[in-house]
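queue> pop job 88
queue> type: inverse folding (structure -> sequence)
queue> payload:
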């Protein structure tokens, strides 16, 4: 009997819950807990209607470590799947340690008052998790997540040495809104408005936000302009890929998105510090989040595809080699299957597969662990089976 607790009933939480219910031989008992019970109940009803599976729901404030610890001790799940927000990572890691339960998430911890996207806070738990004989799996979404596993797969099966990696993320979908973000608006805008950064020849190189762009030919989408961003998986991949000379992350944005974001940033609406408004402290970014569409609400009528993968170049048997490992996901198909859009879907499916790897002990390493440190083969086998088929294409070497 494998009892799991999913925390967070947003766009991603909905998909993870549906996907765990699809694999009910592995996840024999599912509880979904979040701050707002109504959102949990909506997902509970949808899982019952579409899958015929009963799940439990509960209200939980994951920022309250003491109450969460007690809840975990009473419920006794074998794993906590954290798909709340990055702010909840540390309180949940503390509660899991105190209750003796394995942990996983899809995004690294961020303090509310600075957008840094660094693993240092979670790496600080390494010894405590090892000593407690517990596993904490970092970033089991798509990017981070599947992109890390694609790199591990390339290292295991395709290369003796990996020299260059470009992680390329394209959402060529259309939700019909003038401006909306595909996952939590606050986290998304913090990520995009921060300074860019990539790693080359052993050091980090900083850029202005969206300073560097390049056109890539995305499978099943075609040519799209993508912008260089800093993304958290770069930090762990530089430690775990052999022979690496450069790694960068690129994401596409439409003209309309960039226009809106530039104006919002210029007028101060993306600030994450407090401002005084008529005697009330307001964080502009948090206020902006309240005005923007809920990412989950974009799902109905969303058309088009996401195309995300890793372009990897290196050496095999003394010769240069270049490959593109990628997945293409269709927004409308995701809606038909789990009532979500493809960005939540491509995050929620790998979260479920990561959890499955841990429950089945196919991934079993104590301490704080990154996806690329684990065997990629069983993960990728299940990923294709549960809705995210992936492909390897040989590219000409420059
Ligand atoms: P949403 O904002 O849609 O959902 C977040 C959920 O967490 C909400 O239900 C929210 O509750 C709940 N929550 C927030 N604070 C607490 C708390 N203190 N206690 C309990 N529950 C809380 O976000 P998404 O579903 O879009 O994203 C979820 C996570 O997935 C984020 O961390 C995001 O960064 C990550 N992500 C990762 C990706 C990847 O590829 N690795 C890609 C996309 C997202 P309430 O409704 O009450 O606010």
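queue> result:
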């Amino acid at each position: 009997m494998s009892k799991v607790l999913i925390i967070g009933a947003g766009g991603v939480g909905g998909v993870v819950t549906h996907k765990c219910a699809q694999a009910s031989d592995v996840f024999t008992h599912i509880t979904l807990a979040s701050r707002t019970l109504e959102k949990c109940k909506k997902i509970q009803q949808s899982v019952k209607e579409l899958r015929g599976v009963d799940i439990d729901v509960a209200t939980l404030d994951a920022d309250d470590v003491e109450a969460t610890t007690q809840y975990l001790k009473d419920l006794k799940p074998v794993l906590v799947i954290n798909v709340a927000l990055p702010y909840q990572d540390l309180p949940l890691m503390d509660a899991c340690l105190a209750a003796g339960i394995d942990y996983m998430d899809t995004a690294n911890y961020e303090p509310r008052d600075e957008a840094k996207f660094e693993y240092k806070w979670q790496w600080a738990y390494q010894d405590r998790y090892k000593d407690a004989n517990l596993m904490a799996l970092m970033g089991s979404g798509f990017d981070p997540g599947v992109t890390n596993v694609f790199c591990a797969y390339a290292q295991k099966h395709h290369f003796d040495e990996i020299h260059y990696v470009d992680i390329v993320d394209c959402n060529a979908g259309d939700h019909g809104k003038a401006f909306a973000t595909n996952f939590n608006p606050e986290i998304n805008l913090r990520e995009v408005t921060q300074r860019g950064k990539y790693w080359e020849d052993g050091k980090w190189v900083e850029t202005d936000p969206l300073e560097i762009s390049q056109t890539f030919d995305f499978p099943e989408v075609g040519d799209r302009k993508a912008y260089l961003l800093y993304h958290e998986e770069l930090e762990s991949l530089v430690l775990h890929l052999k022979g690496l000379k450069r790694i960068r992350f690129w994401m596409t944005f439409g003209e309309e998105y960039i226009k809106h974001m530039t104006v919002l940033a210029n007028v101060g609406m993306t600030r994450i510090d407090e401002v005084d408004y008529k005697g009330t402290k307001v964080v502009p970014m948090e206020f902006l989040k309240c005005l923007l569409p809920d990412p989950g609400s974009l799902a109905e009528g969303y058309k088009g595809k996401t195309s995300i993968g890793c372009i990897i170049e290196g050496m095999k048997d003394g010769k240069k080699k270049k490959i593109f490992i990628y997945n293409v996901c269709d927004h409308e198909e995701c809606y038909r299957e789990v009532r979500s859009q493809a960005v939540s879907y491509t995050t929620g499916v790998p979260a479920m597969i990561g959890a499955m790897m841990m429950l089945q002990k196919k991934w079993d390493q104590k301490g704080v662990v990154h996806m690329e440190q684990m065997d990629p083969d069983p993960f990728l086998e299940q990923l294709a089976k549960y809705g995210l088929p992936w492909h390897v294409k040989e590219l000409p070497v420059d």
